[in-house]
Amino acid sequence: MLSTFAPTPCGAAAFSAALCDGLNALGADVGVVRVADDDAAPTDLRVVGQVADGSVQTCAALLNRYDVAFVQYQDGIYGGAAGEHVLDILDALQVPSIVLAHTIPKNPTTAQRSVLESIIAKADRVVVISDAANSRLRLGYSVDPMKISTIPHGVTLPRGAAPKRAGRPTLLTWGLIGPGKGIERVIDAMPSLSDVPGRPQYLVVGQTDPRVSAAEGEAYRRFCINRAQRLGVADSVRFDDCYRSQTALTDMARSAAAVVLPYDSTDQAASGVLAQAVASGRPVVATAFPHAVELLCTGAGIVVDHDDPAAMASALRRVLTEPRLAGALAGEGRRLAPTMAWPVVTGSYLRLAQKMLATRPAFV
Fold first, then answer.
1. How many CB atoms lie within 10 A of CB 306?
2. Is 12 within 8 Å of 20 (Cβ atoms)?
3. Same domain, 195 and 286
4. pLDDT category, 135, cuts 50, 70, 90?
5. What is the model's pLDDT at position 248?
6. Rg of the chain in Å (alpha carbons)
7. What is the DSSP string of 159-213?
8. pLDDT at 54
9. Cβ neighbour number for residue 118 with a 10 Å cutoff
10. Which of 41, 96, 199, 350 lies at a C-alpha separation of 20 to 30 Å from 17?
11. What are the Glycosyltransferase subfamily 4-like N-terminal domain coordinates in residue numbering (predicted)?
12. Where in the sequence is the domain holding 243, given as residue range(s)?
């Protein structure tokens, strides 16, 4: 597997760790070539090398020791224009490859289009996380549609009884923080919720995205804190800047009144946070980015337009004050969760690899 990996705190690294765990549980031997832009030592024995430490040939040689190379492609992971450095590694592979395409721009630059089309041309199979991403790739790019498969983002199913909800009702957002997360949308709605019984609070959990931190420090977090103070809701908006495990985040989600994904993007066709929020069995409120429109369409959450503050405030008020609605949304999430559980998702990846090897005997 070629990907970011622990101790890097990002979604791709968390995805890779969960996928490795699932493959190991199914009896597969997994090694990881960690993409790193820091000097941090690997913390997992499955890490067999690091891109930061070696040449393209060294990285490819490590991947070539295995039956299949699984490559995660996401904006910002690899160097060069639109991550073009990954192309050199793909060229050096002697084993079949599966590329998971997290980033599929709706309106790509020339470089983004060229790199993504080249990645797909070089890969043996390509996986996307949503039907929206699948359609975008097939219709918007010059690619072989027969290579593309949709496998949902895996989720950790909650275990045991849900934590008791004590104190103020909590609206929860989590993930790496930075401009584009839309946190200010929820902050702007908080004054209108001050009359809701229990005085709801908004909890934002997550560190600042390292790339954002390197460029502008904690400017976005300070902007949000200042906005809450200016609106008179500072006592109802709380930031927790710790990196939390998936188990801890799942527990926090289960104790929340609702999970909110107020993202600015109208482009995002894959969101691991959204998938886990649905699986937590709590109501979800999200802006209308493509993955949210798709995953919430059967009733696991409420989707609001990006530029409609009144709709955001109304949706939050409804999940806080209408128990029957909140229960129905949560119930649909619980119904969907088993289809996205990591054992199911991992099995899909393993079957894809086995099928690929069976139809490409020259690689066996």
1. 17
2. no
3. yes
4. very high
5. 85
6. 21
7. -SSPPP--SS-EEEEES-B-TTS-HHHHHHHGGGGTTSTT--EEEEE-PBPHHHH
8. 64
9. 16
10. 96
11. 11-157
12. 170-340
